[in-house]
Write a structure and sequence with these properties.
Elements: H1 4-11, H2 21-28, E1 38-42, E2 46-52, E3 55-62, H3 68-84, E4 102-104, E5 111-117, H4 131-150, H5 160-169, H6 176-189, E6 202-205, E7 214-217, E8 220-223, E9 230-233, H7 234-242, H8 258-268, H9 275-278, H10 281-300, H11 310-334
Antiparallel strand pairs: 1-2, 2-3, 3-5, 4-5, 6-9, 7-8
Helix pairs in contact: 4-8, 5-6, 5-10, 6-10, 6-11, 7-10, 10-11
Length: 336
């Protein structure tokens, strides 16, 4: 997740309708119709939309210092590979200059922007999925993993261990407990095998294949938001996707949960997942929590600065609550 100060600075450039000259400048690089660019949401980057020729497109803007500076090229390479394999995922829309992405000067530094064709369909929360959609969700993830098995560059970008180590190293001074938990997880993860290629357990993974990154065209899910893409265990991708089914809590994981079983059945109808890999799901859930927790610890460090907007202060407060819960859960998982 990005800095809250940066998030506030970006939104201060927009009007109440989510439009502004700064955003228009980004969208103009794709030949957008004037006045059509608007913000949709913000998390690790800014998701916006614009229109051109009567069609809608999504625009993603990554702020300076984001991991996208390292992962964007691998992400776009992999998306092109998936398109060639017929995997339903968002399709790149090149800029008016024919480039896959643009680097734009902003008041807070150079930012990376990419555009994709807009996918018309339905968004749905995981708890709202029908039995058929739970199976389709699992099957879609399995098909992505089958494609990844054949991908010739399985170690392109930042792997999960590198992401965890980088997040740990950004912690503020005095965060001894947080470092201890991260080091304990890294120690466990380093013992796991990495088998690449057909029938393997390691390759490029989406790393955020959860419900809000799926757009449903009928009963077919299309994947979006590959910003967390990187090398990892396929079982970790499954764990990261299914965490919503357990209230985003490590201790609540239940391999016998009917919804998870349907998700898993859909996956195994397409690609095998051995029981020994399924047994690692709680460890990978803990990894996911720690990655988010370490990012949030940096974001909220030092408290609210002077001039912080009330909506940012409220967001900060929610993040602190999440941080406390994850601290307790991870400490219990890792042990003394």
């Amino acid at each position: 997740m990005m800095s809250l100060l940066l998030m506030q600075a970006f939104f201060s450039e927009l009007d109440e309708g989510g439009r502004g000259a700064l955003l228009e400048g980004f969208a103009a690089l794709w030949g957008a119709e004037p006045g059509s660019a608007t913000i949709v949401r913000a998390s690790s980057n800014f998701l916006c939309s614009f229109e051109r020729g009567g069609r809608r497109y999504s625009l993603r803007i990554a702020p300076p210092g984001s991991r996208k500076e390292v992962t964007l090229e691998p992400q776009l390479d992999f998306l092109a590979f998936l398109e060639g394999r017929g995997i339903p995922a968002h399709r790149l829309f090149p800029s008016a200059s024919g480039r896959r992405f643009e680097t734009v000067a902003t008041p807070w530094g150079p930012s990376l922007a990419t555009a994709f064709e807009w996918i018309e369909g339905e968004l749905s929360e995981a708890e709202e999925f029908s039995d058929s959609r739970l199976r389709a969700w699992g099957g879609a993830l399995a098909r992505l993993h089958l494609a990844s098995e054949d991908y010739p560059k399985p170690d392109q970008g930042l792997d999960l261990l590198q992401c965890l180590a980088r997040a740990r190293d950004r912690l503020p001074p005095g965060a001894a407990r947080e470092r201890r938990i991260a080091d304990a997880l890294l120690s466990r993860l380093r013992t796991l095998p990495r088998r690449r290629g057909r029938g393997g357990n390691w390759g490029l993974i989406h790393a955020d294949f959860e419900a809000d990154n799926l757009i449903w065209k009928g009963e077919e899910p299309w994947a979006i938001d590959f910003d967390e893409l990187g090398p990892g265990w396929f079982a970790a991708d499954l764990a990261f996707a299914a965490r919503d089914l357990f209230g985003d809590r490590v201790g609540a994981f239940d391999a016998a949960d009917p919804r998870f079983r349907l998700f898993l059945e859909g996956y195994r109808e397409v690609r095998p997942l051995p029981e020994e890999e399924l047994a690692l799901v709680p460890l990978f859930l803990a990894l996911n929590h720690d990655l988010h927790r370490l990012d949030i610890a940096v974001i909220v460090a030092g408290g609210s600065p002077p001039g912080e907007a009330s909506w940012v202060a409220n967001l900060r407060e929610r993040l602190v609550r999440h941080l406390r819960r994850w601290d307790e859960e991870l400490a219990a998982f890792v042990g003394p």
